[in-house]
Amino acid sequence: MYVNDAFGTAHRAHASTEGVTHYLPSVAGLLMTRELEVLGRLLREPARPFVVVLGGAKVSDKIGVIEKMLATADAILIGGAMCFTFFEAAGREVGTSRLEADKVDVAAGIAAEAKAGECAFELPVDIVVAPASEAGAPARVVPADGMPAGEMGLDIGPATVAAFAARIAGAGTIFWNGPMGLFEIDDFAAGTKAVGEAIAASAAVSVVGGGDTVSAVRRFGLGDRITHISTGGGASMEFIEGKTLPGVEALLDRE
Length: 255
Hints:
Blueprint: E1 2-4, E2 26-28, H1 30-44, E3 50-54, H2 63-70, E4 75-78, H3 83-89, H4 104-116, E5 120-122, E6 126-130, E7 140-143, E8 152-156, H5 158-169, E9 173-177, H6 190-201, E10 205-208, H7 211-219, E11 228-229, H8 234-241, H9 246-249
Parallel strand pairs: 1-2, 3-4, 3-9, 4-5, 9-10, 10-11
Antiparallel strand pairs: 6-7, 6-8
Helix pairs in contact: 2-4, 2-8, 3-4, 5-6
């Protein structure tokens, strides 16, 4: 028989995830079962308030999750470079920050949907900017609506950290995917570290997914205080979106 314990590849219909199930009795392994149970509870019965923390570089990677969570979560906190696409949609200066110009209209639509709904949708109120994304670059904190034209945003600022930490402290369930800044460089790691520490200190059920986020958790030594660290980046995001994972659907004991 075939036992699939590779949740991280369950969103791909490969020979070793879906094809083999046509020839052998196939079941989920213990890790796969745990992933489906924990992530499934986020969608079915999260302890309230349910706070979703999203970061990383691209809005395009998170569109489906944001739209799903607007109807499921109590609050969505947006950090990382993806916030600049939302700033651009709102007509704000973003300097030389990383931006998805082809997703500005999508970001505007999400912001409008959030404003009309009951889920709190929070963007950074201050940003750490620098002229270059490199160690030693002169960094400073500016208001989110006062970014200089010639600099780029590389982390969330202290006021944003405080606002996000307050939301996190009162949460019953937390899902975190995506760093708050360029945490690989110490000068721009404070936001990701502080948000991670707030999540680790919370009494909430905390779930972390995504390769960069897991790397941040490990770098800052927070792993033993997180309820569940998902082994699947793309798989966990597609599951949260509500998509069918072919590597799971093919199993006899699928959820």
